Each structure stands twice: as structure tokens, then as C-alpha cells.
Amino acid sequence: MNIFKSHIVNPSTNFSLVIFLFFILSFQIIGAQENEKEFEQDIANLTSLRPKNFATIDSIFKKHSRDSIKMKTLAKTSKTIDYVEGESYGLNALGVIYRNISHYEKSIEIHKKAKTLADISDNIEFKIISLNNIGVAYRRMDLVKPALDFHTKALDFARSIENPSKTISHNIAVSQNSIGNIYLILEQYELALKQFEKSLEIEKSQSNRLGLAINYQNIGYTYEAQGQLEDALRNYKLSLEFNEQINSNLGRVICYNSIGQVYIKQKKYIDAKVIIEKALNKAIKINDQFYIAATLINLGWVQKEMGDLYASESHLKKGLEVAKQYNLNLSIVEADKHLSELYNKSKNYQAALEHYKESVAVEKTINNERNLRYVNDVIIQYENEAKNNQIKALATENQVWKSKLERNKKIFWYSMLVLAIIVGILVALYRTRQLSQEKQILTLEQDMLRSQMNPHFIFNSLNSIKLYIINNEKENAVYYLNKFSKLIRKILVASSEKENSLEDELDTMKLYMNIENIRFSNEIDFEISVDDNINTANIKLPSLVLQPFLENALWHGLSSKKDDKKIELHVYRTQDDFVMISIKDNGIGRDKSEKINRDKFIKRKSVGIAITKARLANFSKDYTNDYQIEIEDLYDDNKNAIGTNVIVQIPTRSNVLRTA
Predict the structure, then answer these.
(1) Dist. CA 115–CA 91, nearest whole Å
(2) Cα(254)–Cα(291) distance, rounded to whole angstroms?
(3) Quick one: 527 and 658 in the same domain?
(4) Burial status of residue 463 (CB atoms within 10 A of its CB: 0-12, 13-18, 19 or more)
(5) pLDDT at 35
(6) pLDDT tens profile 51-94
(7) Number of compact structural domains in the chain
(8) What is each CA distance from 111 to 46, 134, 171, in whole angstroms?
(9) Among residues 320, 354, 370, which one ends one of the domains?
(10) Alpha-carbon distance 476 to 488, whole Å?
């Protein structure tokens, strides 16, 4: 009798339950209706105001952004009234929704439509957002090259803005974070960590808890990949704290999986199984196939380690099936590796071999993209465009200069022939002597040009700039590339001129020292001082005549010194007929430098000073006085060498002035 009583339903209880459910349903219907009215009002406000910036639109529609029907309505309504920004916002939100349920190709298609709209309206914010969203979708598909292309384009656009908005600053962080993730796929952990730390600083400045959660998660993964499990676990738990604060189930799934993987590696299998099962429940709830596959594989992994081979096989196969369905290559590799190990344990060697071969084949496609040379080529490709354009322009300018020189040479020889016929043998002899002198001058100028533009200097300078590009220090790369191109241009221009103003010479020396200083890690303190009574624009001297003295100070005086490296260039006058140029360094001195050079197997060949003296001698012929070069060894009170001072006296009184 008691048994049957347990199955009897009290009618009053049943009625109360119906009433309760009725009220719940009523409240839900009323809530849905109110929400729909609110959305309609938001649509009306948006179409009336038609704001252009992302932040304003997002402040109105963020609460609706996960509802695909509402975002389709927003995009459709905006398109009807030709409101491009509203349509672009709706499409980007739809793309994110499709991405989060692993419909990546559909997501990319929609984001590209949003990008086209941003191009039409020339809205830089929506352009950057669309590019980043496309990059994220490609990255989730493990397609490194297109992901990297779109993120670098977004970063390039964002950094071109002089005063970026909060939205653009946030997207700089997104681009850096995503590029960091691509570095992780390519196993470039140090480079990845730098990107995540840059992104983290931006997110901290904006107090963006979602951004902080993402970056701490990625930093943790970087440490885990390098075997630093405690550091990885600390960062994963920090990420989980921020995900709890913003109530993100996706964030919880990611953190649970990451923490579970660390526990497996620490052989804490029970803890790992508990937290991975929590991750699986939430992954199924949000229906993200990417993380469903990853979590099933992790659960199969821990069950394999615990010896539960039957359950492990089931979960690994399910994870592999999902990964193949959505083309998740990294998950396919992980699942195949664990299945191969599992079948080895159960002595099913044929199945183990098949899964091992499949993992190798899929991983090979990813490893081709991990090649470091490919990374360098793709990452610096967009940054190289500006540099290549400048180099092409410089090459064109050089070609024009060569053509001009050839044309001038032809004119000169034709003129010589005409003069020889008219004036006769005596003039021809005179002309021959003059030609010999000019040939000597031209030879000196060509030797000078080769000295300034020696391949070793150009190669090292470009190599130094290349390091800035590889390290993604774009501002430094562009800064020094501009300096380098200006220096080369000045050298080419100066090579076609017999003399130059002291003002231009000092400017060129600043550029030269800027470029050389890169190779010294900017350790050299270079100063130029000119006395007030000297007008550098009116003083003439052979072009690039000071460079060999600066080069000697650098490579013979300072290159072997560890720190406190200084070069002082002082222009002054002690008598009316000369201007004095002092180049003083605090290097190791000539004696010690000569000893070091004698001990070297490869000696630096320097002919710059000899060429300079010959050019100064030729220059001085037009002046009342000859040039002077004085080299002074500097010593302290204890007779220790403390540097070298080179004083060049340039004559300033012309022969023409004296005869006048």
C-alpha cells in the first residue's frame, strides 16, 4: 500500500505547479515584448542620429549583439536607409556569432562584406575592426598566412592614426594579441610574449577586463609551451578571475581546459579530469565546436593517463570527428597523437600507426607555415613596401645621375675635339695637361664616393634596420630608414659637386653618425658645436671631407671601448684666414688601437684619410693658404691615453680676394 502511495499525485499540488508555470511563461513573454520594444526604439534612435563612430553604436546595441535575428534586422534596416556604419556594425556582430559556433567560412564572408562597406564610407574604425575579425576567423581555422595578412593590415591602419580613439587603441591590442597567437602556432615564443605584453599594457590602460583575461590566458600558454608550468598556471588563474568578473562562459571553457592541461602535465589527473569535465559542459552549452573538440580531446587525454582506455578512445574519437568536420588542424593533430599512444598501450599497432601517420601528415601542412624564413617574409612584407619604394626611388635617382654623367662626358669629349682642331697642337697640349688634372680630381671624387658608399657600411646599416623590422619596432625602422635614405642621397649629390658648404657638411655628418650609431646600440654621444662668430653657410670645403675622421674615431678609437663613448665636433676660428674643425673622441688612443689592429686576423682597410688629404690639397690651390691637419694624442695626469683630437684647418681666404 505504501508503494502505491508514492505514485499518487496530489491534485492541489498539480494545480499550483500549473499556476506557477503559467506565471513564469507570462513573465517571459512580457519580458520578450519589452525587450523587442526596446530594440525597436534603439533602431529608431540610431537611424535618427546616424552616428559614425563605433563606440556610440556599440553603446546602444551591445546588449543585442549576441542575438542574430536582431543583428540581421539592424543590418537590413541600415541598408534600407543607406546607413553604412549601422549595416557594418550589424554584419560584424553577425560574423562574430557565426565564428563562435564555428561557422568560420560564413563568418569570414560576412566580415568581408562589412569591410567593403567600411571602404565605401572610408570609416577607418570599422575598416580596422572588420580586418581584425577576418584575421581571428582565419586564425581559428589554423590558416596562418591569411590571418597574419589581415591582422598586420589592421595594425598598419591603426598605427597610421595620429590621435587614435579608444576603439582604435583597443584594436591595436587585438591585432597584437592575434599576431602573438600566430607566433605561438609558429613556435616563436619570445616574439609571442612581447606581443602579448604590449597588448596587455593597452588593455590595462583601458581597464578592459575581457582584454586582460585574453592576454593573461595567452601569456600562460606561452609559459606552458616553454615548460614553465607554475608561471603558466598563475596566469591561467588570473585569466579565470577576469572571466568570472565578466561572467564569460567561453572564457571559463578556455581557462578550465588550460588549467586541466597543466594538471595533466603535473600528473594531477583527478583534478585535471574534474575541471576538464566542467569545461565540456560549458562548451556544449555555448555550442562552440572549436572548444568542444579541444575539450573532448583533453578529456580523452586525461582518461588515457588514468588508464581508462575505453572512455578515452570514445572521447578522442568524438573530438577527432568534430575537428575534421570543422577543419581544425591543430585539434586533428592532437587527437591523432593521443589515439596513436592509446592504441600502442592496447597493442593495436595497426590503428596506432594509422593515427600516427595522419597526425604527421596534418602537422606537416602546419609546419610548412612554421618555417622561420616564411615568418620573416610574411611579417615584414607590408612594412617592406615603403622601404622598397624608397630604395627604388634612390636607384632611379642614381640611374639619372649616371646618365647625366655619361652625357656630360660625351659633350666634354666632343668639345675637346672641336677645340683641338681650332686651337691647334699648343692648345691640345695645354688641354691634355688640364684633362690629366681633372681626371685626377674625378678619380679622387670616385674614390671618395666608393669610400663613403662601401658595401660593408650599406649592408650593416640595412641589416640593423632589418632587425628593427623583425622585432616589429616599426617606428625605429622607419626613422632610421629615412635617415639612411637621406644620407645616401646626400652622398650621391655631394659626389657630383667639387665643394660644399660647411652647413651642409655638418648636416650630412649628423646623418652619418645617426646611422653608424645603430651598430653601436646608440651608445655614442655625438655633439656638434659651432662658435657664434662663424657663418657655416658661407664657408666652403670639399664635400664629405670630415667623414673619414669620424669613421677613424668610431672604429679605431671607440669600437673597442665598453662604455662612455663620446665624439665632439667643434668649429671655431683662431685666425681670419682659417676655420678650425676639431674632432675629439675619448677612445683608447692611437697606440692601443694600432696594437689591436696588428693582433687582428682581418684588418680594416682604410684609405679615406689619404683620399681626404689629396682632395684638401687640390682644394687649397684656390686659396692663399694650404690646409693643415694636426693629430693630438690626449693623456690624463698619469700618462694614460684618454682619446685623440684631430684638428683640420680649412683655408677661407681665396686667391681672387687677395688679387682684388
Answers:
(1) 9
(2) 7
(3) yes
(4) exposed
(5) 63
(6) 888 888 888 888 888 888 888 988 898 888 888 888 899 999 99
(7) 3
(8) 21, 6, 15
(9) 370
(10) 18
Q: CA torsion, points 339, 344, 347, 353, in degrees to nearest 10?
A: 80
Average pLDDT value for the chain: 81
Most confident of 10-19, 163-172, 590-599: 163-172
Within-domain flag for 313 = yes
> What is the per-residue DSSP string for 555-607?
IIIITT--S-EEEEEEEE-SSTTEEEEEEEE-SS-HHHHHHHHHH-SSPPP--
Helix axes 372-423, 474-495, angle to 10 degrees: 10
> What is the distance of C-alpha 294 from the center of its chain?
30
3-state helix, strand, coil in the chain (%, to 5): 75, 10, 20
Q: Give the CA distances from residue 196 to residues 50, 178, 180, 237, in Å, rounded to whole numbers and listed in that order.
A: 35, 9, 6, 17
Collapsing DSSP to helix, strand or coil, 525 comes out as: strand
Give the integer Cα–Cα distance in Å for 180 and 219.
Answer: 9
Q: What is the pLDDT of residues 174-224, one digit of tens each?
A: 888 888 887 777 778 888 888 888 888 888 888 889 889 988 988 998 998
Question: Taking the CB of residue 630, how many other CB atoms lie within 10 A of it?
Answer: 11
Identify any residues that bridge with 632 across adjacent strands, giving them in sequence order: 645
Are 428 and 539 in the same domain? no
Rounded to an integer, the average pLDDT of 517-529 is: 87
Q: Are 469 and 523 in contact (CB under 8 A)?
A: no
Residue 383: closest CA among 181, 200, 148: 148
Q: Are residues 279 and 299 in the same domain?
A: yes
Say yes or no: 295 and 363 in one domain. yes
Asked if 359 and 396 sit in the same domain, the reply is no
- Of 658, 649, 659, the residue nearest 626 (C-alpha): 649
Q: What is the pLDDT of residue 394?
A: 64
The residue that leads in pLDDT, 97 or 45, is 97
* Amino acid letter, 499: E
For residue 562, count other CB atoms closer than 10 A to its CB: 7
pLDDT (0 to 100) of residue 241: 94
CA atoms lying within 13 Å on the CB side of residue 457: 23
The pLDDT, as a whole number, for residue 385 is 46
501, exposed or middle or buried, with CB in 10 Å at 0-12, 13-18, 19+? middle
> Strands, E, within 400-523: which ranges?
499-501
More confident residue, 169 or 94: 94
Give residue for cell 696588428.
598
CB 559 within 8 A of CB 629: no
By CB atoms closer than 10 A (0-12, 13-18, 19+), residue 242 is: buried
* Whether residue 486 sits in one domain with residue 361: no
Q: How much is the pLDDT for 560? A: 80
| Average pLDDT over every residue of 470-485 | 84
- Chain centroid to Cα 561, Å, comes to 32
- Asked whether residue 603 is domain-assigned, the answer is yes
Domain of 337, in residue numbers: 266-370
| Contact between 512 and 547 (Cβ < 8 Å) | yes
CA dihedral 517, 519, 524, 526 (to 10 degrees): -20
In a domain, 246, yes or no: no
533 and 656 in a single domain? The answer is yes
- Distance separating alpha carbons of residues 121 and 641, to the nearest angstrom: 67
Reading the block at residue 498, the C-alpha cell is 667639387
What is the identity of the amino acid at 88? Answer: S
pLDDT higher than threshold 50 for residue 383: no
